[in-house]
Amino acid sequence: MQTRTQIAELGKVNFIEKLTSPFAIEADDAAILDNNRVIASDMLLEGVDFDLQYTPLEHLGYKAVTAAASNILAMNAMPKEITISLGLSARFSVEESEALYKGVHYALDQYGIRLIGGNTSASMSGLVIATTCIGTGDNIVRRSGAKTTDLLCITGNLGAAYMGMQLLEREKRAVGKSGIMPQLEGYNYLLRRQLQPTAPISVVKNLATEGVVPTAMIDITNGLASAMLSLCQSSQCGARIYLERIPIASEVFKLAQELQIDPVVAALNGGDDFELLFTVPLEHHKEILTMAGVDVIGHVVAVDEGAAMVTPDGSEIRLQSPDFVNQM
Amino acid sequence: MQTRTQIAELGKVNFIEKLTSPFAIEADDAAILDNNRVIASDMLLEGVDFDLQYTPLEHLGYKAVTAAASNILAMNAMPKEITISLGLSARFSVEESEALYKGVHYALDQYGIRLIGGNTSASMSGLVIATTCIGTGDNIVRRSGAKTTDLLCITGNLGAAYMGMQLLEREKRAVGKSGIMPQLEGYNYLLRRQLQPTAPISVVKNLATEGVVPTAMIDITNGLASAMLSLCQSSQCGARIYLERIPIASEVFKLAQELQIDPVVAALNGGDDFELLFTVPLEHHKEILTMAGVDVIGHVVAVDEGAAMVTPDGSEIRLQSPDFVNQM
Fold first, then answer.
1. CA-CA distance, B214 to B216, in Å (whole number)?
2. pLDDT digits over B81-113, tens only?
3. What is the DSSP letter of B241?
4. Minimal CA–CA distance to A132: which of A200, A203, A44, A50?
5. Quick check: helix, strand or coil at residue A160?
6. Same domain for A262 and A164
7. What ipTM did this prediction achieve?
8. Do A81 and B33 touch (CB under 8 A)?
9. Using a CB-CB distance cutoff of 8 angstroms, which residues of chain B are in contact with residue A142?
10. CA-based nearest distance B78→chain A, Å
11. Based on the domain organization, do A182 and A310 belong to the same domain?
């Protein structure tokens, strides 16, 4: 009988490495097409990346473009063109498809991205949205350039998208049981971060304006811990993140208490925050401190010191992410 | 209640036009990224574009790359880079994924394409393969440049992939009923054309070598009739195709007789032939006649003469394709 190794046994990161190793693909959010142009493909699948029960189609279209743009921004480049391929099931109506495209259109306008092509197919099962985004930048930044003493910076705040999903999942269960309309009041920010997240395009613009070229950059879509570990692996460095420096929105704390979830875990492992983690040389300290939407959360250390979070009492917790645990 | 228009009511071509019209996308096989660079995205969905019951995964990987390359060749450009995103269901084993990638790898080597990125996701339903291919060419050719008296040329031969699928479908039904192994002998060519089609990369190379720049070009993936009608629409021209000039492989005739299918219908509307239809000015008659893998099947006429096939007795049959019938 033929050997059948389940993908879960191998762990997703190892699995992708095994598949792509013959092709020598660099581990970055986008591929470098030429000196100043990058390209990234992404795919959103119904039932895995989104749930149509609580995801308005306009928001989904918007989010698909945000996810695509995020991959380009994470290379310190500006998204310029996009192709969008859709797999639509027969039960999809023209009006629903239009709603999806309305969200796409809105995001394209907002980010200044031009739709240049794509493909629409029938899907026998769920909705599939595949994007390829192309961007340009004078200073493309990879994951691999972080140096000891560099500052660790992040854009925006973390954990809100994850908590938004917890809220939607809870309300979905409640509605399923009772038929009562969902109670989502007081958590508008969390819902917006989950359903219509924006990519930090202004930060990449500001970095260029201020003449700050990060040494390494990665997007935070699987949580801060996973992004930090990937960056450390690519750059062969360690990191110290200071717990009290991680920006977490007040609604995250509020809902976390209600649901008895640790808000720091939401920030570290929650995912779906389309924010950026990047490193800059110490000499840019001043420009970074005054830059809107950016926080310094720690610094880069030598590889043998590992990646850890420092709590206010000075103790260190080694960073772990579900993805990386699987690899062992 | 909200209006729900089924996509089928509108017809696929109209539907895509309706969705994408606000974005002003040109109807070509690929989008023009800059003067000499084109980009095309494609998606293959399980149950729609392939059936894993009779599609070996190595062949499927190969075919996905062929389909991607075909879009680039149809712009008179050479495919150079590709991104491949996979949606894999949990029941997929690592070995199966490796088989898929082995086929991808083989095609990439053969076509000289570099894999530069992609994305692997879990899929709740079927296998999804999304590709984006980038190509370069000194003389990008669109669908819209055909002129009256131009020669109509095609690469390869038509109908074989469609007949290969008919054969596989027949054997699938037979195996389902009786459990007997499929009888596929004598039809190796048809099976290869369906399962492992190649894209006519050598023709695009030869055109460049001979200094022949087509006036219009399109790939033949939905059958010759559909391709011809699209080209006529984009170029605002008519066409005369001579029935006896359409190259059809002998195995197509053989199986068509067995299954009582009209082989000309297979060639005109069958689809899945990754061949090219293109037009060249009359003065290139000589270069085209001596070019391997190319046949002249007719010529371009004025738009008011319409697109028709001329039978050996001189009567004309108006070209129709299922896609275009839907539009009325």
1. 6
2. 999 999 988 778 888 889 999 999 999 999 999
3. E
4. A44
5. helix
6. yes
7. 0.81
8. yes
9. none
10. 15
11. yes
